[in-house]
Amino acid sequence: MLPEIGNFALVLALVLAIVQSSLPMIGAQLGNRQMMAVAEPAAFGQFLFVAIAFALLTHAFIVSDFSVLTVVANSHSAKPMLYKISGVWGNHEGSLVLWVLILTLFGAAVALFGRNLPASLRARVLSVQAMIAAGFLLFMLLTSNPFLRVIPPPPDGNGLNPLLQDPGLAFHPPFLYLGYVGFSMAFSFAVAALIEGRVDPAWARWVRPWTLAAWCFLTIGIAMGSWWAYYELGWGGWWFWDPVENASFMPWLLGTALLHSAIVVEKRDALKSWTLLLAILTFSLSLLGTFIVRSGVLTSVHAFATDPTRGVFILALLVVAIGGSLALFAIRAPALKGGGLFSPISREAALVLNNWLLATACATVLLGTLYPLFMDALSGGEDKVTVGPPFYNATFVPLMIPLLVAMSIGPLLAWKRGDLPGVLQRLKFAAILSALIGLATLYLSWGGPVLAAFGIALGAWLILGPVTDAVERTKLFRAPLSQSWARARGLPRASWGAMVAHAGMGVVVLGITGSTAWTEEKITVMRQGETVTVGGYDYRFEGAEQIAGPNYSAIRGHFRASREGRDIATLSPEARSYPTPPMETTEAAIHPRLSGDLFAVIGERQADGGWAARLYFRPFLSWIWAGCILMTLGGIVSLTDRRHRVGAPRRAAQKPGTQKPGARQTAPAA
Amino acid sequence: MTRKRRRLYLVVGAMALLGVAAALVLTAIRDTLVFFYSPMELAEKDIPPGKNFRLGGLVAEGSVEKLPDGLTTRFVITDLSAEVPVLYRDLLPDLFREGQGVVAEGALNPEGVFMARQVLAKHDENYMPPEVAEALKKSGQWQGAAETE
């Protein structure tokens, strides 16, 4: 009974979505207030019904209702509760329900917080949002219904893929989806603005917080996925330039560009059509990402058994959404009036450079990701190729370097007409210190890769740039501390956010450089009591034992790691084997330190009683995660800026952070 | 600066950058592209030793053996019409089994043995890498048994 109600709720949501996508749009066109007013209740209703469906699906998973096909295929009664719940979105059907749930949540948020948007813009935004929802609900009901029944129900389920039974992965998809789907807001706003025929700073003030929030979620989502790959796949790598990883990385790159170009629209009323295009493309790449992951057209380490017929449906959705919005853009964008002028050396120009480099870098990733498909199609299936890390190292990385160099300079330039020599003068200290750090690295790692020293200098530069900026703006060391403190408090939160995020990028660069350049790895056979030295740490193998987990059995090895006789940690990697579905997984043991990660994997038992083992030392690796967290924090700090709350400086009653671009918008109605 | 001038700067800048990117891509793609071959294709083509490529097929039944160092595995990848011997010195992926589909990346040595640098693990027990399924179809040995969903 309950699954049927869930199914019914999805159908109702679809009906509401169709109503919401048509009536308000027509109403906005005709200037009919009543028709426009349909949008909000419909948006709430849609969210409510999808939430009901999601809750019922979750219920089916929790009580292990094996009359539901999705539950049979992806759950098992002996699974721990956390994984019963995360199993809801650990499969195709359920992950779609989650996707649509988040989509309708954003729609409902616009309806709730967007009370002060111009009525026609709000109606159009909600209408576009509903079109996307309608497409996905239709897709779900026609090709991947989560509530299909099995008669008679089997006694138990097939279980969730053990690789996905992991706390890191339990929360990876929701965050990723919040990011992906969050960009739908920018998309809906862009399409609505194109129909409306006007883009002004007020528009950008609406779009920025949504984009920023989506960007934060996506950053965390990607970092979690990467972290999971790092400890679960047991290869010691954290990024493989795999199609599925690229699928989430491309919207991130363009989303980052969008974040910055929207600033120019807001502050200087320039780059309007480019920003609209970015908004459309960012969400299009999110859709493309969904297509790549769900259709299985590309070989990937993440490849699950997938169904090509679904791919065709998503491809059709993709063509309609991307083609339609780009056509609209082509027709309407030329009519947009250009805004403020700026010189080639200015904050605007720096942001244009940022956009160019990010967009071009994104294009190379897109090319590398889709190239195998082109080759396959052009050669009639004869040539199967893959594009691996060397391609991205040769294309993506060189494009990133000027971006990273400029990242510390751009924020110091003035709007309209900047003074580059003056800015460089102010950054002199940061530049010299970074160069010294680079030279010191070169000296200390003599004979090692020269590029690594450059990477470290670059990372230092990225951190020192914002630090210089902060010190100057607060007059630290040049004014009494109390005055600096007052100045620090007076700086806009958005500025603090940008500084923290930029410095976070620097921390990531340090982590990437260190872990790539100086990783030490040993693959060896160890007998009990033997010691192997990797990266200056002595690993003593203390033996291995058979253990029983809640729904698996495992071999657990113990390595005692010490440095110069001082105990550091005991690493206990596991090789697990799950009965349902029958599968083995590797659980690496990782001991993160500031100077690097100690990483151990245990392999097979040898005939002579030894054990195969893989031991790593990966310098600075945890800095990558720390940097991602800093970037996200920067985004969150920026989100709390009152300027992102649109004309609501005195509404102190609202909690910061929860405020969306609501409240007292003063933009003239269209 | 006039609006027109600015637009000109923007267009020229963007074009220059795209040109650089295109040059990077064109030089990189030739050297970094990794081709996929089945054992049969490998026998037909003349691939020089040292050239990096991917080899896919089934792990031949009864072919897996450990060398005395305890780490190197010797096995045979087959598409049931041709065979290639493979050496791999690392821990094997969790799903590596005789009779299962496998994709290995590496290069041939002068003796015609495929020295694998990486053997790819797949997430799903029943999952057959699409290239392997394709290779088996080409060699006429496809039974469709590994098709899942």
Q: What is the succession of H and E elements of chain B?
A: HEHEEEEEEH
Largest interface: A-B, 60 and 49 residues
What Rg of chain A do the Cα atoms give? 26 Å
What general form of chain B does the structure show?
elongated
Q: How many β-strand stretches of chain A?
A: 11
CATH topology of the largest domain in chain B: OB fold (Dihydrolipoamide Acetyltransferase, E2P)
Taken as a percent bin, the fraction of beta residues of chain A is: 5-15%
The overall strand count of chain B is: 7
Domain module tally of chain B: 2
Structural class of the helices, strands and pairings of chain B?
A: alpha+beta
Please give the oligomerization state of what you see. Answer: heterodimer
Helix content of chain A: 55-70%
Structural class of chain A: alpha+beta
Task: Return the average pLDDT of chain A rounded to an integer.
Answer: 87
Strand content of chain B: 25-35%
Mean pLDDT of chain B: 80
Q: Helix content range of the residues of chain B, please? A: 25-40%
Largest sheet of chain A: 6 strands, antiparallel
Distance between the termini of chain B: 62 Å
Q: Ranges of chain A with pLDDT <50 over ≥5 residues?
A: 300-305, 646-670
Helix count from the secondary structure assignment of chain A: 20
